[in-house]
Automatic annotation (TrEMBL):
Belongs to the GTP cyclohydrolase I family. It catalyses: GTP + H2O = 7,8-dihydroneopterin 3'-triphosphate + formate + H(+). InterPro entries: GTP-CH-I_C/QueF, GTP-CH-I_N, GTP_CycHdrlase_I, GTP_CycHdrlase_I_CS, GTP_CycHdrlase_I_dom. This is GTP cyclohydrolase 1. It comes from Flagellimonas hadalis. Homopolymer.
């Protein structure tokens, strides 16, 4: 299966089922689903939700394996400030922010774009930030088998902003380190580089 699908390829039966559920929810919320402005809303909402959860149908390992190249470079590779949008599994509201990913090659490098693609595969599911962090970390670790891998995610959670505790400025940071990043000097070098403004 191709790792990225167009909306046109969405299963029509599933899209229609999700659409009907959205129409029912809107009706339960007190809306008039027959008014003009809302006629296409259940279908749009269904397609939006299917887009935002397309990661269930994608294979992150396959994405990485598709662009691994033998190379002797064995210093740190960092892709920082990868924007991410996910949905919290408790409220199905967005959380969003940035991921910073690093690895130290062990005979193979990976196509740079594949790292943000892997972030998206795991972000486009119902998630908690901790599991998202580990999903990315473990996938890179087990597929690329690098000497080390590190993932830091900084995110804001809409369920803590629009509702609930209503804190607008809190940012949650999660991190995971494997291999050489478990050594304090390597980890500190990575943390220093992701916080540095090199411009
Ligand atoms: N650890 C973790 N918690 C999350 C994440 N996203 C949302 N949450 C939290 O999940 C918790 C669910 O708690 P509950 O008490 O069951 O739900 P609730 O009554 O809606 O809680 P409040 O948000 O405090 O109103 C809340 O504390 C959320 O802030 C996440 O990615 N990681
Ligand atoms: Zn939540």
């Amino acid at each position: 299966m191709a790792p990225y699908r167009n909306l046109e390829e969405y299963n029509i039966e599933i899209t229609n089922e999700v659409k009907d559920h959205f129409a029912k929810i809107m009706d339960d919320l007190g809306e008039d689903v027959t008014r003009e402005g809302l006629l296409k809303t259940p279908e749009r909402a269904a397609k939006a939700m299917l887009f935002l959860t397309q990661g269930y149908k994608q294979d992150a390992e396959e994405i990485l394996k598709g662009a691994m190249f033998a190379e002797k470079y064995d210093d740190m590779v960092i892709i920082k400030d990868i924007e991410l949008y996910s949905l919290c599994e408790h409220h199905m509201l967005p959380f969003f922010g940035k991921a910073h990913v690093a690895y130290i090659p062990n005979g193979h490098i990976v196509g740079l774009s594949k790292i943000p693609r892997v972030v998206d595969v795991f972000a486009r599911r119902l998630q908690v930030q901790e599991r998202l962090t580990h999903d990315i970390l473990e996938c890179i670790n087990s597929t690329l088998k690098p000497k080390g891998v590190a993932v830091v995610i900084e995110a804001s959670h809409m369920c803590m902003m629009m509702r609930g505790v209503q804190k607008q400025n809190s940012v949650t940071t999660t991190s995971g380190f494997r291999g050489q990043f478990e050594k304090i000097e390597t980890r500190n070098e990575f943390l220093k580089l992701i916080s540095a403004d090199l411009s």
